[in-house]
Design a protein that fits this description.
- It is a single chain.
- The chain is α/β, with parallel strands linked by helices and 275 residues long.
- The chain has a single domain, classed as P-loop containing nucleotide triphosphate hydrolases (Rossmann fold, 3-Layer(aba) Sandwich).
């Protein structure tokens, strides 16, 4: 980000992981809505032109607002990378320049920009990562998902080295430092954690603690597996919207716990609410 963009004060949150199904879009929309409810002006940017899950989530949200005629469900200003026409030759330099301008534009008149990235490696995703002030990497609580961050010796439960994704993030940290002297606060968020302790969970705890020291990440609890997160997609709503939509008395204990998980994640980002 240019020094002019930083002067505007926009904080860029990138949600990234080169593995699908980790809950990136769910994390991105919940973080965006929670920040708006704190009084911050938020822009969202969907870098995943192929899947476009965040864009579809927000389209559902817009349709809900229009149909219900409500004013308590807020929309962020949304931007999205457009997919190249079928059969067209991709000009990667042009696409990278366009994304950079889109990111710069999204920082104007916003406190926060939340970006959702593809679940695969790409030059566009790498560029988006290089703009992060905060990088959130959701992983499911399994060694399959951990493999995107590190190669693990299963016999000794020892980290052998960083994975391709961790190496990419490290490179983008250097890109960011060269661009404006800034740094990336990298948070690994453990989604779909089991509610009960298990031998597998304890082994993951051990390996992740080792990994956190090696590659400089913060380990943050994420979202427990809950049906409500999937059910809300079609309405474009988040767990943060239910209190106003249905009233505090309508929230179940599970809903309140899910809401607190989102608040804890936003608190970990460390942005100050507007007064």
């Amino acid at each position: 980000m240019s020094s002019d963009s930083k002067a505007r004060g926009a904080h860029i949150v990138v949600v990234g992981n080169e593995k699908g199904g980790s809950g990136k879009s769910t994390t991105a929309i919940h973080v965006a809505v929670a920040l708006m409810q704190r009084g911050l002006s938020v822009a969202t940017l969907d870098v995943d032109a192929r899947q476009g899950t965040l864009s579809r989530y927000l389209a559902n949200r817009h349709a809900f607002i229009k149909a219900a005629g409500v004013d308590h469900v807020r929309m962020p200003d949304h931007y999205a990378v457009e997919a190249a026409p079928a059969g067209a030759d991709a000009d990667i330099e042009t696409e990278l320049e366009r994304l950079g301008l889109m990111i710069e534009g999204a920082t104007i008149n916003h406190d926060v920009v939340v970006m959702d990235t593809p679940g695969s490696a790409s030059d566009l995703s790498a560029l988006a990562h290089s703009y992060a002030d905060t990088l959130i990497t959701p992983i499911n609580d399994s060694f399959v998902d951990l493999d995107v961050l590190a190669h693990v010796d299963g016999r000794r439960m020892a980290v052998m080295g960083p994975s391709h994704y961790a190496e990419m993030v490290w490179e983008q940290k250097k890109v960011r430092a060269r661009r404006d002297g800034g740094s990336i606060d990298w948070m690994v968020v453990r989604n779909r954690q089991a509610s009960l302790d298990s031998h597998n969970t304890r082994k993951l705890d051990q390996v992740l603690a080792d990994l956190a020291q090696r590659i400089g990440v913060r380990l943050v609890p994420g979202f427990t597996e809950r049906v409500i997160f999937r059910e809300l997609f079609l309405a474009g709503l988040t767990i943060m919207d239910l209190k106003d939509a249905a009233g505090p008395q309508a929230l179940s204990a599970s809903h309140r716990a899910a809401r607190q998980e989102v608040l804890d994640l936003v608190e970990a980002i460390g942005l100050t609410p507007r007064t």
